[in-house]
Amino acid sequence: MLPTRYQSVLATLVLLGSSASLIGCGGDPLWLPPAHKITIQQGNLLSEKQVARIQVGMSESEVQSLIGAPIHRSPFHSDRWDYAYTKGPSGFAIEARRITLKFNEGVVASIESNADTTTGVIPQKRRWWEILTPNG
Q1: Which of 9, 10, 122, 133 has the fewest CB atoms within 10 Å distance of its CB?
Q2: 39-123 CATH fold
Q3: What is the C-alpha to C-alpha distance for residues 5 and 8, in angstroms, rounded to an integer?
Q4: Residue 69 DSSP code
Q5: Predicted local confidence at residue 72, as pLDDT
Q6: Are the beta carbons of 73 and 99 closer than 8 angstroms?
Q7: Residue 57, by phi and psi: left (phi above 0), alpha (psi -120 to 50) or beta?
Q8: CA 69: distance to chain centroid?
Q9: Is the pTM of this model over 0.85?
């Protein structure tokens, strides 16, 4: 049996050791930078210049040669082409863009876009290494 003095020191060491191991298990350790979150891009990447060149009256083949095939062609609405693009860091809200072209007898009849709105909010908090990259 250990003297009382050694028992309290041993109990303190056990308590400190278990606390240290639990601190290491939770979240991002304070002494390491947080894990990098990959920016995920999906859909048709369309520039504002490309979209601005689409005009009412263009044929389907002209549109497809200008901006490519749509991401979605509905079998129920063959006269509607949808282009969608999302980009954002994984684990956060993303910014989404959508362009819908409606055709009448093979020519563009209307153009709908959400370019003036944002469907997600990307947080402004940036980590030190993201400040070094222009598009981080």
Answers
A1: 133
A2: Beta-lactamase Inhibitory Protein; Chain:B, domain 1 (3.30.1450)
A3: 6
A4: S
A5: 74
A6: no
A7: left
A8: 22
A9: no
